[in-house]
Amino acid sequence: MRAAFSIMIFLIILLTQIVAGQEIEKLIPTLSDLEGWKMTAEPKVYIGDNLFDLIDGGADLYLEYGFDRVVTVHYADPALNNIQIEIYEMIDAPSAYGIFSITQQAVEWSKQYGNLSAVKEEYISFWKNKYYVILSWSSRQHLDEPLLAKLANMIAQKIAEKGTYPDLLLGFQVLDPGRKVIFLKGNLALSNFYYFDYRDIFMLREALACNLEGHNRIIVKYPDQSKALEALAGSKQSITSNRRFTDVTMAFQGFSCKDNKGNLILIRQIENYLAILVALDNSISLIPYMDDVTQKIENITGNR
Fold first, then answer.
1. Phi, psi for residue 254 in degrees, rounded to 5
2. How far apart are CA 113 and CA 111, in angstroms?
3. What is the pLDDT of residue 6?
4. Span between the terminal Cα atoms of the chain, in Å
5. How many C-beta neighbours within 10 Å does residue 48 have?
6. Cβ–Cβ contacts within 10 Å for residue 15, how many?
7. DSSP letter string over 176-220?
């Protein structure tokens, strides 16, 4: 009886994986939609840790955000352009927003494709629902119509639901693509924005990061105030013992220091948050910006 039950559970899990894999493959443009095109490599699905076989140097970041699976396919159009499509399925829409935001932080964002997109001459990437899509091409020849734009629109239309932004981002009401607010879900993501330590000194599980008016702004949320205080104490101890940082000084509800480039860093605990500001221009004062962040957090928590 127990063996039969175990077999049934295994079959259910296997069926779930197969169905999910079929769903993501349905997002790929078919050759019937692309007259004269051909696939130079059949669609291939990578699940879980198998992502290392596709992107060995960057898989950990995707896994930190909640990677489920990816399908990749290669095409050649009639002009022999080589086109690659990668469609990443994350565990939910906020995770997909997060991986889009951290990997495309250096590119301008728009709403041209999906919910948000980053467009350059040689590639298009966009986020919609729990999917992060990358399209790229090489060996470009003259075409009568934009190549990647056509494919991006086809895939975006196949994704029925838009999905939701991370709750943390909604709370701060920063939905302007021009602000490029990055959603962090761990220390690897933080290190891709600003490097503090290979260790998770801030106990980071969710945070927002952006570049504003000559400084980097990072807001980390914790389950409660005691966790925020614990993270504040632990990060101060770690930074004090790290040679990359100097001039560690007590400050209101936190501390300040300087990094190895001489940039001033100000860290403050506010309710169940840590606010971290890194000055990129030492002619500015971080105090007014920190006071502004404090007011925003107090308004959100209702403790003003």
1. 175, -140
2. 6
3. 44
4. 60
5. 12
6. 10
7. -GGG-PEEE-SHHHHHHHS---SS-TT--SEEEEEEETTEEEEEE
* Long-range contacts, stretch 297-304, CB < 8 angstroms, 24+ apart: 297/219, 297/270, 297/271, 297/273, 298/270, 298/271, 300/171, 300/172, 301/271, 301/272, 303/271
Per-residue pLDDT of 249-302, as tens digits, reads 999 999 999 999 999 999 999 999 999 999 998 888 999 999 999 999 998 887
Spell out the domains of the chain, with CATH numbers in brackets.
2-158 (3.40.1000.70), 167-301 (3.40.1000)
Dig out the tokens for 255 from the structure. 């501390």
Token reading at 55: 């992107």
Give Cα 2 distance to the centre of its chain: 42
pLDDT tens for each residue of 88-109: 999 999 999 999 999 999 999 9
Rounded (10°) CA dihedral 130, 136, 141, 143: 10
Percent of the chain with pLDDT over 90: 68
Q: How far is Cα 79 from Cα 77, in angstroms, rounded to an integer? A: 5
pTM for the model stands at 0.87
| Tokens at 159, concatenated | 């994704």
Backbone φ and ψ for 271, nearest 5 degrees, come out as: 55, -125
